[in-house]
Known about the structure:
Blueprint: H1 8-15, H2 19-30, H3 34-40, H4 45-53, H5 60-69, H6 74-83, H7 101-112, E1 119-122, E2 128-131, H8 133-138, H9 144-147, H10 153-158, H11 170-188, H12 191-201, E3 225-229, E4 232-241, H13 249-252, E5 255-261, H14 264-273
Antiparallel strand pairs: 1-2, 1-5, 3-4, 4-5
Helix pairs in contact: 2-4, 3-4, 11-12
Amino acid sequence: MTIAASDPTVFTAVTGKGVGPLLRAWRERRRISQLELALRADSSARHISFVETGRSRPSEEMVLRLAERLDVPVRERNTLLLAAGYAPRYPETPLDDPALEALRDGMERLIQGYEPYPALIVDAGYTVVAANRGIAMLLEGVPEKLTAPAPNAMRLTLHPEGLAPRIRNLREWRGHLLAQMEREIALHRSDRLRALYEEVAAYPVPEERPGAEPAEPVAHFALPLRIEHAGRTLSFVSSIATFNTPMDVTVAELAVETFLPADPATATYLHTLAG
């Protein structure tokens, strides 16, 4: 059933109070004043105040302008528009839709270009939508129940039958991943993501093995992932990239994560494996 975006039932269901409280919440989350937001949006602090308190209904253009200045995620911009009584602006195209064929091909070429270094693409719920042979190498020996179609990157990493027992600095890396998820939950207010967080945070953390080798005294510029493979300890630093100014919810929520060697020994080993 299709309901008009201006239907008051939808308006109430989305926010309960309208667009003003949502915009105020985003402004406070960004820690900027009404005056600063007004200057960024070419408006006035008085008008921003009226919008936030419900005394003034912002135009569709103003909602989008404020959302852009507040760096609101694309999905949440649709929520703001609905709350203000307007139709959503951004579509949510399934990734397997023919319209995104060129995007899918481009993503595959992108992560293949990183080989022999691991690279993968995940959606907003950390479901793996594409991965290269470097990732497959790291996942060797992981049970099929975790690597079945549409695996989840967080489960693969933190599950006690996944990569967790192989990660030499698991406590640090686990803390990094959980903090990353906490930021995403605060940003997107996703029930699906919160449920995943509660699941993976409850996984047991293996005890540190006696006699574990200490980390090399290297001045890392980022927290490294130190993981075992075939009796060797490989060291990676990860980088996450997203699409610039996406106009589709699905595309906006995709992230490309690459794992680059953190030391010469890891780089040499990966190139040797690749032949």
